[in-house]
């Protein structure tokens, strides 16, 4: 399908387009033209990714700037999906245009997913793969090899050096699978191919972290230019990602390991002093001049990168008291010992970075400034010492990162020491949380650097919350409703059981047998009437466990068992994926199944239950966060103090975005249908916080239901869904052909013209009146002047 | 912030045994270890009481030989006693080498200084007996030479610290106030809504208007109230936060401004340079008139007569008026005066 938005010709790879897709593209274009940021909420299952890609690719190809697209998504599977869409789009464009465009699209994920080295790729943990790869590919390894020493290297990496640096891989769109295959064929490392080609491609698709986590971003995304278009897809949780990327936890164990790392460093230094003191001297000389110089030598594989160091710091010389290697190691040791001592305290402490620094200085005479340089200094040292088993120094690196962060940011961070895991625990297991409270800190460089940042998701309501929390301004803020030819999903709010007792997961009543029984009845009734799959979400694991055991005692599970298989999500990823597989099988073969899971668990994010996999989603209780958590409390306070977002507003916003995520799981397209049940009386007041497309679909008569009423509605709805539904019925309403689109555009143009004319007419009339008024005034003035004259 | 209140068992079992009496913390959880900064040998508090109560004696650790007093014992802050010792040394060195970055002309100098200090500390901590002695000497030498500077920097450091503390306190106080205000606001809002609701109920009960209309009206009123209050309260609190921040800044700025003014001496002539420009006053002039009876005569001097004063006055009188050219001055004086009259005339015209 080929059409224009204003002057921009767009090739859309499907014969039909949804009205909301068209609106979405128009707004995207508006944002790009204006060169600003936007927040867009597009109902799930309406082809958000493809609209986004086809508009932006068209934009890239049509305008001479050829702005690059950076598309960030959350998970591997989403990245893979987006790449596949892009590939299909480019193929369609080629067919339509009749020639192949000069275009390159690449995806990037961690080494763990892309590594080809037979030994390294077998490692299970991502961190270990990273570290082992670094020790094979670091710059000094190559130097050693050139000198003729026998060191292990990675052939996949070294082969890249024989290729032209800007043409490591031919044009085209490369899915992750595709690039792996290409790498295997040509014996070149897919990871480094992607990374080095980043500045030479039109579209990059990778995970949030490559842009948000300052430790990675500095390294991977440094060369991207200012006019790139940045898209954060599925961004409803972006604030949490930001916060996590700057927070660290320190435990006694990690401190012990860090000490060991420091001791190793010490012995390595004295070794080097005896054999090869020149290298240390060189490093020292460089550091005297400033970090930036030392930085020149920094390769893509630095041991780690500094967390968000301000530029002025990089230009400054390293403080004199940590310039020498042995001084620096002593410095680290002192810092670690201090942390160890702090960990021995047996009461909860929360303090600001400032007061932490003051106390630190009092006892260890460590000043703020050298502390800030810690991470960078360690990187330099590790490089100088040519360490290969880098994974051993991971904990030390964490401590150094922590040191740098705590000395760099005064505001927006808090240190919380929790000596016990829970209030009832006897054995201490102290954790020092260094938590970021301000999501804006991590994302600020992104907004500063790129002129257009697009934040989009299926559920990102209320829209104004995000600019507030992340500290940016939008050009366009829009939430689209879903056009439907028939009512294909039925959202309901159930507030009481058949016996009229209100249901709620509120703390006071959640364990009352009557409430639990009513929830149980709801489950039984819906398991009876729902075809195939049904997904149930609980606010937390704890609550899920207790309610399941109570249901067991009441015989409810036995009843449900007659109709459906019951499967449960657990915190263990492997168990959960097994449960999911079983669930899918049961849904496909007609047995039907119920999946009990948690609203903040893995299932609620990123796993789709389309078609038979999910016909009903049941949200038991409002998925509030665990408010007793000290970190959450601190964040709430910060939000209130800084952004004037009230505790309750934030908590309810957060709960509702998770609820909306859960609801969105079952509806993955326009031909899909499903029932969405929100079972808690508190949802009544919160329904306005649901995304527009869900909220609009809730009928007034379905907001305050008891179980039996809900069952009635659901039955009626399912009967309606069972009627044959032809595609033709959708034509012109929920899907547009080209003709429909043209018609719509014409209508809109007409409307625009009419509006313009009206405005003009009004302006004219208004102008006339205005002029008259002016005249009057003038007259008056003159008359008055005349009078004055007379008076005079 | 406090020292560890109840130390738990450490992972290294040797760390939980008193090296002197071999009692074990595993068996006696209240066991407390103390050290003396003379030699940093660890022992339990019972041992300290037992050995040192009767007066200073030798350290019980074999081959130590230092004489210790009970007064010197305290609990170690660090688990690693080497670090404890290092930090004590650092404290000593830091008290002496307490220059600040402002004292240095360039960053490079400051960094070099930092490194020198660090080297000294390293000598004191890790050096052989000889380097240690030498380092001690350097330290002492520097201390004696720079007594005044050290004292000054110390004072400045303390001042900065106290200012910092004050600022922090003010901030905390402000945050508390804000929190209270917020809570109050919420409370009031709730009461307002409650009142509205009640009045709506009353109206429903007592009048015979359309019930739906009343309900709707009430709802609207409540909504308006809450949103209005929100916007209303947004503004003033914002103001108050900025003002709080401002006052914090001004305290800092003020102190800094006051300090240099105080240091300057009072100058009655307001900065006019009084040293003669055309001649140099000498201590002695050949003068027959004076030489005869004033010089060396106590009778002439007792009244406070000063030869120097006399020379100065005579020279001033001799030279005064030499650099003044009256014509020039008159000419330059006339011009502005003329201007002024013109202006005055112009102004006259206006009236
Ligand atoms: S260079 Fe590539 S293939 Fe080689 S170890 Fe690293 S990630 Fe694996
Ligand atoms: Zn003892
Ligand atoms: Zn001793």
From TrEMBL, chain A:
Domain named Helicase ATP-binding: residues: 7-295
Gene3D superfamilies: 1.10.275.40, Bacterial XPD DNA helicase, FeS cluster domain, P-loop containing nucleotide triphosphate hydrolases
Pfam family for this entry, one: Helicase_C_2
Top-level taxon of the source organism: Eukaryota
Co-factor requirement: [4Fe-4S] cluster
Keywords associated with the record: 4Fe-4S, ATP-binding, DNA damage, DNA repair, DNA-binding, Helicase, Hydrolase, Iron, Iron-sulfur, Isomerase, Metal-binding, Nucleotide-binding, Nucleus, Transcription, Transcription regulation
Protein name as catalogued: DNA 5'-3' helicase
Stored InterPro entries: ATP-dep_Helicase_C, DinG/Rad3-like, HBB, Helic_SF1/SF2_ATP-bd_DinG/Rad3, Helicase-like_DEXD_c2, P-loop_NTPase, RAD3-like_helicase_DEAD, Rad3/Chl1-like
Region described as Disordered: spans on this chain: 760-792
Subcellular location: Nucleus
Family: Belongs to the helicase family. RAD3/XPD subfamily.
Record-level GO cellular component terms: nucleotide-excision repair factor 3 complex
Species annotation: Hymenoscyphus albidus
Location (main, coarse): nucleus
GO MF annotation terms: 4 iron, 4 sulfur cluster binding; 5'-3' DNA helicase activity; ATP binding; damaged DNA binding; hydrolase activity, acting on acid anhydrides, in phosphorus-containing anhydrides; metal ion binding
Automatic annotation (TrEMBL), chain B:
PANTHER family on file: CDK-ACTIVATING KINASE ASSEMBLY FACTOR MAT1 (PTHR12683)
GO biological process: nucleotide-excision repair; regulation of transcription by RNA polymerase II
Location relative to the cell: Nucleus
Chain intervals for the UniProt region annotation (Disordered): 157-176
Name of the protein: RNA polymerase II transcription factor B subunit 3
GO CC, alphabetical: transcription factor TFIIH holo complex
NCBIfam families attached to this UniProt entry: cdk7
Domain RING-type, chain residue ranges per copy: 18-63
Keywords: Metal-binding, Nucleus, Zinc, Zinc-finger
InterPro entries for the chain: MAT1/Tfb3, MAT1_centre, Znf_RING, Znf_RING/FYVE/PHD, Znf_RING_CS
GO molecular function: cyclin-dependent protein serine/threonine kinase activator activity; zinc ion binding
């Amino acid at each position: 399908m080929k059409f224009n938005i204003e002057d921009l010709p767009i090739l859309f790879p499907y014969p039909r387009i949804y009205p909301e897709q068209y609106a979405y593209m128009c707004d995207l274009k508006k944002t790009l033209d204006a060169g600003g940021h936007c927040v867009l909420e597009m109902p799930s299952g309406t082809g958000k990714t493809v609209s986004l890609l086809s508009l932006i690719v068209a934009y890239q190809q049509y305008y001479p700037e050829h702005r690059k697209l950076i598309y960030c998504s959350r998970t591997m599977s989403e990245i893979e999906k987006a790449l596949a869409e892009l590939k299909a789009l480019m193929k369609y464009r080629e067919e339509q245009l009749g020639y192949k465009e000069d275009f390159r699209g690449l995806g990037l994920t961690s080494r763990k997913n892309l590594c080809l080295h037979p030994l390294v790729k077998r490692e299970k943990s991502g961190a270990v793969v990273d570290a082992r790869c670094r020790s094979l590919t670091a710059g000094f390894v190559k130097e050693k090899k050139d000198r003729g020493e026998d060191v292990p290297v990675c052939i996949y990496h070294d082969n890249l050096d024989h290729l032209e640096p800007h043409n490591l891989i031919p044009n085209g769109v490369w899915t992750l699978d595709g690039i792996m295959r290409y790498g295997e064929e040509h014996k070149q490392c897919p990871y480094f191919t992607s990374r080095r080609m980043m500045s030479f491609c039109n579209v990059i698709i990778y995970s949030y972290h490559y842009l948000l986590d300052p430790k990675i971003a500095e390294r991977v995304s440094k060369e991207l230019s200012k006019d790139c278009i940045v898209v954060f897809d599925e961004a409803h949780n972006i604030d949490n990602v930001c916060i996590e990327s700057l927070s660290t936890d320190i435990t006694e164990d990690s401190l012990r390991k860090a000490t060991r790392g420091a001791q190793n460093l010490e012995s390595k230094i004295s070794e080097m002093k005896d054999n090869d003191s020149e290298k240390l001297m060189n490093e020292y000389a460089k550091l005297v001049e400033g970090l930036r110089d030392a930085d020149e030598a920094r390769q893509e594989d630095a041991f780690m990168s500094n967390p968000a160091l301000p530029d002025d710091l990089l230009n400054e010389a390293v403080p004199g008291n940590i310039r020498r290697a042995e001084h620096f190691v002593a410095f680290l040791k002192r810092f670690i010992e201090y942390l160890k001592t702090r960990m021995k305290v047996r009461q909860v402490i929360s303090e600001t970075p400032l007061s932490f620094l003051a106390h630190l200085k009092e006892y260890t005479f460590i000043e703020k400034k050298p502390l800030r340089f810690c991470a960078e200094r360690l990187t330099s040292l590790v490089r100088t010492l040519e360490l290969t088993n880098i994974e051993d120094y991971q904990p030390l690196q964490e401590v150094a990162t922590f040191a740098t962060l705590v000395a760099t940011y005064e505001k927006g961070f808090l240190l919380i020491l929790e000596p016990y895991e829970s209030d009832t625990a006897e054995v201490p297991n102290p954790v020092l949380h260094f938590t970021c409270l301000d999501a804006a800190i991590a994302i600020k460089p992104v907004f500063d650097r790129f002129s257009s940042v697009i934040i989009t998701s299926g559920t990102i309501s209320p829209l104004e919350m995000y600019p507030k929390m992340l500290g940016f301004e939008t050009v366009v803020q829009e939430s689209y409703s879903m056009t439907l030819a028939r009512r294909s999903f039925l959202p309901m709010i159930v507030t009481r059981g058949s016996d009229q007792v209100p249901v709620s997961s509120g703390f006071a009543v959640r364990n009352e047998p009557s409430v639990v029984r009513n929830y149980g009845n709801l489950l039984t009734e819906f398991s009876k009437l729902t075809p195939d799959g049904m997904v149930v979400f609980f606010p937390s694991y704890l609550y899920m466990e207790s309610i399941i055991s109570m249901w067991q005692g009441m015989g409810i599970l036995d009843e449900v068992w007659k109709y459906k298989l019951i499967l449960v999500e657990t915190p263990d990823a492997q168990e959960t994926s097994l449960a999911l597989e079983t669930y899918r099988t049961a849904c496909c073969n007609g047995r039907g199944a119920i999946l009990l899971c948690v609203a903040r668990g893995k299932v609620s994010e990123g796993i789709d239950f389309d078609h038979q996999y999910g016909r009903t989603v049941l949200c038991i209780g409002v998925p509030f966060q665990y408010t007793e958590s000290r970190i959450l409390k601190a964040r709430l306070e910060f939000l209130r103090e800084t952004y004037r977002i009230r505790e309750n507003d934030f908590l309810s916003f957060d709960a509702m975005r998770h609820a909306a995520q859960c609801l969105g799981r079952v509806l993955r397209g326009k031909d899909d249908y499903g029932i969405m049940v929100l079972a808690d009386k508190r949802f009544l007041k919160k329904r306005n916080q649901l995304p527009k497309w869900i909220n609009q679909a809730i009928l007034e008569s379905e907001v305050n239901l008891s179980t039996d009423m809900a069952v009635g509605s659901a039955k009626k709805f399912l009967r309606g869904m069972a009627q044959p539904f032809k595609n033709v019925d959708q034509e012109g309403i929920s899907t547009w052909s080209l003709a429909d689109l043209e018609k719509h555009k014409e209508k809109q143009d007409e409307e625009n013209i009419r509006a313009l004319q009206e405005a003009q007419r009004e302006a004219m009339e208004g102008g006339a009146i205005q002029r008259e008024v002016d005249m009057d005034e003038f007259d008056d003035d003159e008359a008055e002047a005349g009078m004055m004259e007379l008076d005079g | 912030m406090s020292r560890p209140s109840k130390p738990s068992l450490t992972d290294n079992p040797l760390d939980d045994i008193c090296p002197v009496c071999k009692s074990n913390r595993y068996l006696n959880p209240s066991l407390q270890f103390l050290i003396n900064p003379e030699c940093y040998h660890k022992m339990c508090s019972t041992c300290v009481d037992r050995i040192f109560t009767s007066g200073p004696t030798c350290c019980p650790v074999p081959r130590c030989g230092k004489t210790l007093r009970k007064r010197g014992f305290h609990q170690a802050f660090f688990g690693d006693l080497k670090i404890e010792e290092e930090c004590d040394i650092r404290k000593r060195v830091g008290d002496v080498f307490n220059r600040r970055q402002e004292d240095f002309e360039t960053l490079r100098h400051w960094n070099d200084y930092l490194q020198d200090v660090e080297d000294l500390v390293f000598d004191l901590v890790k050096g052989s007996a000889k380097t240690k002695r030498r380092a001690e000497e350097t330290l002492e030498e520097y201390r004696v030479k720079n007594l005044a500077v050290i004292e000054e920097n110390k004072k400045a450091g303390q001042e900065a610290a106290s200012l910092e503390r004050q600022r922090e306190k003010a901030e905390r106080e402000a945050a508390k106030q804000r929190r209270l205000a917020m809570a109050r606001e919420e409370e009031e809002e709730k009461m307002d809504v409650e009142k509205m609701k009640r009045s709506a109920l009353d109206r429903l009960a007592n009048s015979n208007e359309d019930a739906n209309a009343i309900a709707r009206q009430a709802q609207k009123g409540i909504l308006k109230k809450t949103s209005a209050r929100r916007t209303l309260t947004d503004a003033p609190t914002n103001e108050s936060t900025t003002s709080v921040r401002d006052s914090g800044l001004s305290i800092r700025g003020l102190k800094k401004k006051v300090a240099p003014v105080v240091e300057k001496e009072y100058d009655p002539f307001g900065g006019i340079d009084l040293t003669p420009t055309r001649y140099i006053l000498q201590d002695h002039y050949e003068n027959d008139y004076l030489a005869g009876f004033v010089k060396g005569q106590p009778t002439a001097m007792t009244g406070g007569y000063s030869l120097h004063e006399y020379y100065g006055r005579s020279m001033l009188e001799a030279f005064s008026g030499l650099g003044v050219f009256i014509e020039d001055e008159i000419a330059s004086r006339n011009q502005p005066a003329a201007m002024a009259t013109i202006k005055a005339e112009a102004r006259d015209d206006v009236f």
